[in-house]
Amino acid sequence: MGDPEHKRKRYCLMCNVFKPDRCHHCSACNRCVLNMDHHCPWVNNCIGFWNRKYFLLLLFYGVASLVFFICTMISSVIDTVHWYIALYKDPGNLNIRKLIENISLDVTVCIVMFLTFVLTRFTLFHITLVRRNITTLESLEHKGVDYENQVGAG
Q1: Is 44 left (phi over 0), alpha (psi -120 to 50) or beta?
Q2: What are the residue numbers of the active site?
């Protein structure tokens, strides 16, 4: 009974079915998901075997959009810095409307830079998981087992 062919089958008490390896029950979706990575509230679905590619594409496009936003705002940020320097040299030139525009631009750019940093780290984490062929749940379990492709194992 020690060999892998006779290992114990797992049973899901919620779905009342036998579960294959690397399958987990999602309490939010109330179903078993093959190769479940996590339940994503942003897409309101479980990320698993069938939609992990699309989740990674979502992350990639999100990072690309934020980087594009930062690149297109560089000239505005430089103009804002020059305006602040001019205002520092001559405080009598204060324009309240321009000040409010510049402050809102500064806050927006700071938020976008923070989101870019966080989403880039999150994307790199998931790319690392894909390269190691493990899911987020498996990485949190600290199994340390990389599931290799068994097709060519012969």
Answers
A1: left
A2: 40
Quick: pLDDT tens for 105-124.
Answer: 999 999 999 999 999 999 99
C-alpha 94: how far from chain center: 42
Which residues touch 50 (CB under 8 Å, ≥6 apart)? 34
Q: Could you read off the pLDDT of 120-151 as tens digits, one per residue? A: 999 999 999 999 999 998 888 865 555 554 44
Global confidence as pTM: 0.78
The angle subtended at Cα 61 by Cα 55 and Cα 67, nearest 5°, is 140
For residue 15, give every residue at least 6 positions away whose Cβ sits within 8 Å of its Cβ, in sequence order, or none.
Answer: 25, 31, 32
Q: Does residue 133 contact residue 22 with C-beta atoms inside 8 Å? A: no
The amino acid at residue 18 is: F
Q: Indicate the length of the chain as a whole number.
A: 154
